[in-house]
Amino acid sequence: MRLFTFLTTIMCFVLLPFVGISQQPADTSETIPQGWELRFDEPSSTMEEITFSNKENALHIKSGPAAIYYKPEMMASGTYSLSGTFTQLEKGKYPEAYGLFTGGKNLQEENQQYLYFLVRQDGKYLIKRRTGAETETIVDWTESEAVQPMDDDTGPTENRLEIEKEESGIAFLINGQEVERMGLSELSYLEGMVGLRVNHNLNVEVEQFELSGGME
What we know:
This protein has one helix spanning 2-23, and strands at residues 37-40, 51-55, 58-62, 67-88, 97-105, 113-120, 124-131, 134-143, 157-165, 170-174, 177-182, 192-198, 203-215. Strands 1, 2, 3, 4, 5, 6, 7, 8, 9, 10, 11, 12 and 13 form a 13-stranded antiparallel beta sheet that branches. It is mainly beta.
């Protein structure tokens, strides 16, 4: 009887840690740099499908599903400049896009909204606006010599994107070259949270992600 009790105690001691681990949800507290938040386009996506880290002054995002990444305290208002330098480390199977967004509101709610400015490896850029689950094209995919493309013979490619909101209008720049300029009356979602957008299955680094000027 004593032997049976002893063996039962030993078995419980050995098995309980494994039972406990199997019942715990995955710990994702270390998968996002401190102060950052994200939202997937597809609600069923999980943190295990991406890598998001901050090392040596560069943000590294290896995406599976598409998502936006942002720091809630980075709020733009009035006149401002939003910029970031993106390095695509690997060519994607498809020309997926990456870039900046501004004018973010309710980013974790059904009525989210923001304006985004993206480039992709085939040398094209895009400007769109999101309202809830709907998106509206402001400038459809447009080829530009300002975009550094990636082909089979090139290594990592770098593109610097800038959104400049001035009193008279808003300008969109790629590698220092203005590709679009619009009047303020032509656009909405120009004030609010700012951040990054990275679409499906990309491996990118982001350096010098900065907001200057009209910050709340």
